[in-house]
Write a structure and sequence with these properties.
Blueprint: H1 12-39, H2 41-63, H3 69-85, H4 89-104, H5 118-135, E1 155-160, E2 166-172, H6 182-196, E3 201-207, E4 212-218, E5 236-241, E6 251-255, E7 258-262, E8 264-268, E9 278-282, H7 288-299, E10 304-309, E11 325-329, H8 332-358, H9 365-368, E12 371-376, H10 378-388, H11 398-403, E13 409-416, H12 425-430, E14 433-437, H13 442-449, E15 465-470, E16 476-479, H14 493-502, H15 520-523
Parallel strand pairs: 9-13, 9-14, 10-11, 10-12, 12-13
Antiparallel strand pairs: 1-2, 2-4, 3-4, 5-8, 6-7, 14-15, 15-16
Amino acid sequence: MARRPLPRILSKDSAQIARTQIVRSRELARTAADSATDVLHPLITVTRGLRRLASAGRRKWADTPKDKRGPLLFLVACVILVVALAPYGPLLAVITVMAAAAWQGRDRTPPAPEGPDESQAERLQALYEALVPYFCGPDDPAPLYTHGGDWEQAFTAHEFDDGGRVGHLVIRYPAYYPDGEPEARARIEQLLTAKAGRAREYRFAWDEEGNQLTVTALAPLPADVPAQRFVTAPGETVLGFTDPSEVQRTLPLSYGEEQIDVPPVVWRTGIRSTEPHLLVMGQPGSGTSTLLRSIVLQALQYGDVLIVDGGGTGEFTCLTGRDGVLAVECALAGALASLEWAAQETERRLIAINLARQAGDPPPADTRRPLWILLDRPSVFALLATSEGRNDPQTLLQVPLRHGRAAHVTVVVAEQFDSAEALSDAVRQHTRARVVLGPAAPRQVEAVLGTPSHTTALAHVPPGRGFARLGSGPVHRLQVPRTPDPYDDATSDTDRQAVLELLPPRTAPADVEPAEPIEPADLTKPAVEAAPVAAEAVPVESS
């Protein structure tokens, strides 16, 4: 019996030909649909008119009082009888009905106005006049910007929002303008922000090659997205939400009684992460603790968390004694002991992973479970340690920061701008994922993120609003999900219940404290005997 030949796998050229044929088929189908619409347009118009006439007849009959419906029916019957008996009456009646249906079925959408109206033209002319001192050169033989000139040559595209303000604008400027200098750009951006409206955020896109500046008014980010479980993979943490045009991914969220899709800012951690540690900067009340709580609730799904709270406000009291929370330390002694244990745990994991690799075995399971170290306001502990003659707790973060990626250890540090100088060099060097929250000057944003933001900042922003940059990527606008302290009296019942539902169950009473401080050796669960780390046992990663 002859065997049937197996189907041949498509080669690269065959697959390309198949894709080309699919595209051509779609274009032919779209062209055929447009042609059919053009041919059947009169029939579609008459059908729409007949439907509108029938609807008008039903409304007229419903509005007629019952005592007058009989005479109305008699009158209609007489008209039909006269039309039927008159010469060419039925034909004329059909022509009249078709003409009325065609008139009623016409497209009543008013044509879009060509160009801006009077008030919009005045706004554009005011913007043009404001730009004249900056874009007009004294030696330019044919200046594009002159006092009393025409704005239509300088503004190639423009759009307005419902309030009559500029929503999108494309500006041409002379080639000799120094658009590569940050100071020159900042002057134009500040001017356009003031003239177009300060109560909005704008994105500025400079095209240095084409000598064009695109100004876009950005819609406000949703500031009332509650805390909830996000659809993410292990190793992914949602820092917040951003503009739809900035990312190619959306997350389904519960927004009140609705389900919406919001573009997230996802921070990836783990052994393959290029930005394994995070630094959060902000002003008091800007939402840094809210972001840390949101990160903790997501991290507890797959790993363990160690929290060191230097603020002393009890923002993380709700996490005490929870499953997966190793400790919530608010005192200097406990912070030093916990961070010393974290450094030893990182070394233990590195030794265990190195021994397993040398033996050709997979890493132990306890080294693959993520460990999160969250340090809020380390400058407070630094001041206390200096006054008591102790070491700065940040010095204990050098090992987790340098080798945490290989050991599945992630460090998150939150600090305020007025104490930024207290951050150690190791924290500054190894936290390549950065977040700035709250109102901040452009120089502060650039100092933290390493590059200026292409969007303006508002003077009054909601808590959790700011900017984020992951490594060398672009700067994104950020809105942190609403994750308040459930034990705060100012928290609403809805937000309190949303956070409490995400908390893991308690494994120990929150009000029970150990009688003596726990030594670092008691906290460790070593897979091998604790010993000084040899230089060859710690793999040094490239930053």
